[in-house]
Amino acid sequence: LGGAASAAPVQWTGAGSNGHYYEYITSGLPFFSALAAADAAVLAGHDSYLATITSEDENSFIAALVNRNRIWVAGSDSESEGTWK
């Protein structure tokens, strides 16, 4: 993704797991560049994308994985200010 991975990809297998793999990349890219880089990447043999957090369990897993650093996740209000998707 244009930066250094902080660790090898990790599969979420705990409570509420979706079985997805996660990888924390330190790149310093702005949001849309990070979004494009993630879209172009392949992780563990699968298409890659920025995380879309859909549960408290997933949020807790990701927070622990990235040690509470600032991260980009999939979500934007670029189509309509204040309407997040």
Describe this structure in words.
- This protein is an alpha+beta fold and 85 residues long.
- It has helices spanning 31-40, 56-65, and strands spanning 4-5, 10-11, 21-22, 25-26, 42-43, 46-47.
- A two-stranded antiparallel ribbon has the order 1-4. It has a two-stranded antiparallel ribbon with strand order 2-3.
- The protein is globular.
- The two termini are 23 Å apart.
List keywords for this structure.
24% helix, two-stranded antiparallel sheet, alpha+beta, 2 helices, globular, 85 residues
The main sheet comes to: 2 strands, antiparallel
Question: How are the strands ordered across the major sheet?
Answer: 1-4
Topology order in helix (H) and strand (E) letters: EEEEHEEH
Low-confidence parts lasting 5 or more residues at pLDDT below 50?
none
Task: Describe the structure concisely for a colleague.
It contains two helices and six strands.
Topology:
Elements lengths: L3 E2 L4 E2 L9 E2 L2 E2 L4 H10 L1 E2 L2 E2 L8 H10 L20
Antiparallel strand pairs: 1-4, 2-3, 5-6
